[in-house]
UniProtKB/TrEMBL annotation:
Entries under InterPro entries matching the protein: BXL, Fn3-like, GH, Glyco_hydro_3_AS, Glyco_hydro_3_C, Glyco_hydro_3_C_sf, Glyco_hydro_3_N, Glyco_hydro_3_N_sf
UniProt key word Transmembrane helix: no
GO molecular function annotation: alpha-L-arabinofuranosidase activity; xylan 1,4-beta-xylosidase activity
Organism of derivation: Potamilus streckersoni
PANTHER family: FIBRONECTIN TYPE III-LIKE DOMAIN-CONTAINING PROTEIN, SUGAR HYDROLASE-RELATED
Domain Fibronectin type III-like: 563-632
Protein name: Fibronectin type III-like domain-containing protein
Keywords, in A-Z order: Glycosidase, Hydrolase, Signal
Length: 652
């Protein structure tokens, strides 16, 4: 396998040719993951150790829609758009699989199927929650990314804890058989979430005994039970279920076949020498190439939310302050379900940003990210004598994680007071670094004059500090930020929809009527771009045909950098409710200063379809508006580049 190293010597031309597509990065990440998964698996097998987390079927990707900003598991998702999530999911599944015609290196399990995006615990438990979802929203929002994942190379799908319209997902024949297998042609297996079958009895009270529950789940399409250490699993009773006549032996055999098919694709029954993936070993784990890829991924994921011309920083400073609960917190910058990297490879903001100055004043201010205590004197002392302050705030998996939702967008504990004090007392300009999976309340920092830059960092991984250094100093043109928000950053808690209302009315950018603090798809650069020459071919399209979209992007600034273009579509004449805007294309391309690049992308006919109850997906005649730019159209908060608009007409 040939890996591309992250360095400063590659030319703009090389990167345009080799790194043009965003999905290629997530494919590379998945490749690296599967190499290490297979290498560790081979080591476990050599030791005859078959413990948890030693297999090849990965419980990933999480592709539930980030429909609510306070859901505890938002950090695990790809954001709030089904198309975006589907593109990423398909490339992730393909990257895990590998390129061998017979064997899988590792495999994806798409989860959690379906209509599972909160609550975890507020206001009710996920273990008993019943998501009431209109059919149109199910088809146009909650299902598309699972179809992309299932058809993109995944071997498995995990059914979720919740019920969907009154039927637990793991006993839901409509989901597991009618849609997944009959409509989509999926031939892999379905595994339950941990304990989900037991919870059909204990929490949902949908059935009241083990025998009927086991029979219902198998008939619905479930292949495998994942149970969390109970003395006996529900599926342990399957022999009795068959003997009682509630399930045929033939159906049981059919449910077992996909499990053995997966094992065959992993090469379990073939001579090891015929499978090239059996040669991977622990020397393939945490290689320099993988560490470089991790660093590159962190840099490309940062989103620059505010910049008053302060970044990039070019000159070395005499002193800086690095303050806040994320200043030097190696555990919390990793996010939920992160691996355990070698501590020598972990770089926090403290270790990464200290080289910016001769002297660094580092004060955490809080003992942990919950920030239930506050060293106000230490914070003020540090920031009042530093040339520049880097303020590191956020949530972390201690606050934002599986099992726990956030009660509001307010930063935890004393962190809001920390921001206020730094704004009031800092000697020099302040750069705010936010570490979170979802939006938090930073309105005060957005409006403060001395907060000269804000970076949404998410949970960047072990290379956090170095990645921040490279972006803040723009070490190379590759470090010029181009990340985009994959969610709507609401301005206030009052704008947030109900956690339990699964209708899409006024939810996510596709249906939201208000003015957010930062819209979906928002992100700044150190340079500027101009869009020109939008052409749609054809402008009159027969239903079922595709439309080609072409336009030019010019880097009009003084620095080379990447631009992520975004293509959106709106329905003008639909007979049913549709999104106000729907992302239909995106990509990342590196553009040298003064250079113009030609872009061509396609809107396929399936993207034009709307769900009509009683008819299914229909491509209706009428006008369709296409927008091309570096942002979501018609927003109060905008980046400096323009947005192009054109119309094509569908006829039947």
């Amino acid at each position: 396998m040939k890996w591309r190293k992250f360095d400063d010597v590659r030319t703009v031309k090389e990167f345009i040719e080799t790194d043009q597509k965003i999905p290629s990065l997530i494919y590379e990440v998945a490749e690296a993951i599967s190499v290490e998964v297979r290498a560790k698996h081979n080591d476990f097998v050599s030791k005859k150790s078959y413990v948890e987390h030693s297999g090849l079927a990965c419980f990933s990707p999480v592709i539930n829609i980030m429909r609510h900003p306070l859901w505890g598991r938002n950090q695990e998702t790809y954001g709030e758009d089904p198309y975006l999530s589907g593109v990423y999911a398909a490339h992730f599944a393909s990257g895990l699989r590998g390129t061998h015609p017979r064997f899988y290196r590792a495999a994806a399990i798409c989860k959690h199927f379906d209509a599972h995006g909160g609550p975890e615990d507020l206001p009710v438990s996920r273990l008993s929650f019943n998501a009431i979802v209109p059919e149109r929203d199910l088809r146009m929002t909650y299902l598309p990314q699972f179809k992309a994942c299932a058809q993109g190379g995944a071997l498995g799908v995990m059914c979720s804890y919740n019920s969907l319209n009154g039927i637990p997902a793991c006993a839901n024949k409509k989901l597991l058989t009618d849609i997944l297998r009959t409509e989509w042609g999926f031939d892999g297996f379905v595994v339950s979430d941990a304990g989900a079958i037991e919870f059909i009895i204990e929490w949902h009270h949908y059935l009241n005994n083990i025998i009927d529950t086991a029979a219902a789940c198998v008939k619905a399409g479930l292949n495998l039970e994942l149970h969390p250490g109970y003395p006996q699993g529900i599926f342990d009773s399957l022999e009795q279920v068959v003997n009682d006549g509630k399930l045929t032996k033939e159906m049981l055999v059919e449910r077992v076949k996909p499990l053995f098919l997966a094992r065959m694709k992993f090469g379990e029954f073939d001579p090891p020498e015929t499978n090239p993936y059996t040669q991977l070993n622990l020397s393939d784990v945490m290689t320099p190439e993988h560490q470089a890829l991790s660093l590159k991924t962190a840099v490309e994921s940062f989103v620059l939310l505010k910049n008053k011309g302060f970044l990039p920083m070019r000159d070395r400073l005499k002193s800086i302050a690095i303050v806040g609960p994320f200043a030097d917190n190696p555990d919390q910058i990793m996010g939920n379900y992160a691996p355990n990297p070698d501590p020598k490879t972990i770089f926090t903001p403290k270790t990464g940003l200290s080289p910016l100055a001769d002297t660094s004043y580092v004060v955490f201010g809080c003992s942990d990210t919950k920030c239930l205590d506050y060293d106000v004197e230490g914070i003020i002392k540090a920031v009042s004598k530093a040339d520049v302050t880097f303020l590191c705030v956020g949530t972390g998996q201690a606050v934002e994680t599986e099992n726990f939702d956030r009660p509001s967008m307010k930063l935890p504990g004393y962190q809001p007071f920390l921001i206020q004090d730094v704004i009031k007392k800092a000697l020099g300009p302040v750069v705010l670094l936010v570490f979170s999976g979802g939006p938090v309340n930073i309105v005060e920092a957005v409006s403060a004059d001395n907060v000269v830059a804000i970076i949404q960092c998410f949970f960047p991984n072990q290379g956090t500090g170095v990645a921040l250094y490279q972006m803040i100093t723009m070490k190379s043109s590759l470090d010029n930020p181009a990340g985009r928000l994959p969610f709507t950053w609401y301005a206030t808690d009052e704008q947030i929809p109900s956690m339990t209302n699964y209708s899409m009315v006024n939810g996510t950018y596709r249906y939201f009527n208000g003015d957010p603090l930062f819209p979906f798809g928002y992100g700044l650069s150190y340079t500027t771009f101009q869009y020109n020459d939008l052409v749609l071919t054809p402008t009159k399209v027969k239903a079922g045909d595709n439309v080609t979209v072409t336009f030019n992007i010019t880097n009009t600034g003084s620095l080379s950098g990447s631009e992520v273009y975004e293509v959106y579509m709106s329905w003008l004449n639909a007979t049913v409710p549709t999104p106000m805007y729907q992302l239909v294309g995106f990509n990342r391309t590196l553009i040298d200063k003064g250079q113009t690049v030609a872009i061509s992308t396609q809107i396929n006919s399936q993207q034009m379809a709307v769900w009509v109850d009683g008819k299914g997906f229909v491509i209706e005649p009428g006008d369709m508006v296409v927008y091309a730019g570096g942002q979501l159209p018609n927003q109060k908060v905008q980046v400096s580049s323009n947005i192009l608009r054109a119309v094509f007409t569908i006829y039947t």
